[in-house]
Amino acid sequence: MGKITNALKKAADERLQRIERINRIRENDTLIIKKMGDSKVDSRIIAYFDPKALITEQYKILRTNILSLSKNKPQKTLIVTSSIHSEGKTITALNLAMTLAHATHRPKVLLIDADMRRGRVAKYLGVDQKIGLSEVLAGKATLEEALFHIDVENLTFLACGAVPDNPAELLDSDAMKKLLAQMRNEFDHILIDTPPIVSVTDSGIVGAQTDGVVMVVQASRTQRGVVKHAVELLNQAHAKVVGYILTNIEYHLPEYIYRYL
Asked: Which of 15, 87, 208, 218 could join 82 via S-S bond, C-beta 3.0 to 4.6 A?
């Protein structure tokens, strides 16, 4: 009986130690994602504030998976979308873009905010960028006027611009096709943030012009049937879904990982 009691006590002690480690990790991550100095970048852009944070490591794994999708034909232009709103697609696109720009071979990365209905890229970066994609496609501004940077090397942004009357038509225009063709020659990776596919057709239009679509799905919120319907809509538009990103997940870090932290 004494051996069983000691074994249970040992197991309980080890569990408490694991919980303490996890709490310390979470506390550290909370400190990591706090804004630094006068930065106006949203605190959820973890890859900007700390490239070595635990969450940033997950984006690095995502980067590796995307780069290895096709050895023969690299996925140069990808859109990031979701089934419905508020699943974390824009935050994901921003973190992924910064992680790609941090790669050892220093690729040139462009993030386009093609959500011309309620784009958030400029807002999350804390910049007041009035000129964007809608003005470029409508012929009201040049691409040079619309492109902008923050203090991340090799990373360029194109904001959404003012809300136009015809966003779907602009995305399906020759001007959009020419813009993507030009950008393919100038950048190594192009990420395009688009509206949720179930709400509007924009993602399908842009997805058909790119190498693939990455779907963001929020855990414990988005129903499987909704995701299936979203994928069907993308397939109907001849947009190829190359992978899924699950957001809003909490998971336990195994014991053997701690020695590397």
From this structure: 87
